[in-house]
């Protein structure tokens, strides 16, 4: 069944997140939806939510620590307060905008996997790599598994071509199936697609061979749209 995840990035407030989660939960319960749904709010919007077992609240980022002197970061002391045990690691915006190295990402992965967190691990290539062809694209992507335990039980992968995130440009069906089938042949884990996924195209994308769901940014920030996305994929 399709896994559908919303990454709020730097959007929504504590109040709007609370009502968003409440509405999504109400929809899931009243429609008896069994698909796994994830919401990754901002760190300031984390809370204890009264939600059904198929709805998971995760954190977009956290430091590899329980607590300590890491200005601007949060650790497990803060996450434990809200029973959060799901984390997004390796998102391209953290790699490319915030400069997280593969070494830092691998340390974070090791820390949170040791604690038994569900990890959605993001991989993807920039446009200049994509233009070099599939072989170079896969080579670039496989480097992002350096130091990562691909056999970790609670691992979900998300392929997000950097050139398709927030640009309105969606990879072609061929682009997606080429990369997804190559990754799936090496790593037997659920593999989501992310990159300009919308209400209109989510069903087609999630129906492709090797696609187990979607990690969605912009198109998931309006609650009615996110619910429609779940509705469009509920039987996959």
TrEMBL record:
Keywords: Cytoplasm, Gluconeogenesis, Glycolysis, Isomerase. Pathway: Carbohydrate degradation; glycolysis; D-glyceraldehyde 3-phosphate from glycerone phosphate: step 1/1; Carbohydrate biosynthesis; gluconeogenesis. SUPFAM superfamilies: Triosephosphate isomerase (TIM). Coiled coil: none annotated. Substrate binds at residues 7-9, 166, 196. GO terms for molecular function: triose-phosphate isomerase activity. Its EC number is 5.3.1.1. PROSITE patterns: TIM_1 (PS00171), TIM_2 (PS51440). It is found in: Cytoplasm. It catalyses: D-glyceraldehyde 3-phosphate = dihydroxyacetone phosphate. The active site is at 91 (electrophile), 160 (proton acceptor). It is an enzyme of class 5 (isomerase). Pfam families: TIM. HAMAP family: TIM_B. Homodimer. Involved in the gluconeogenesis. Catalyzes stereospecifically the conversion of dihydroxyacetone phosphate (DHAP) to D-glyceraldehyde-3-phosphate (G3P). Belongs to the triosephosphate isomerase family. This is Triosephosphate isomerase. It comes from Arcobacter roscoffensis. The gene is tpiA.
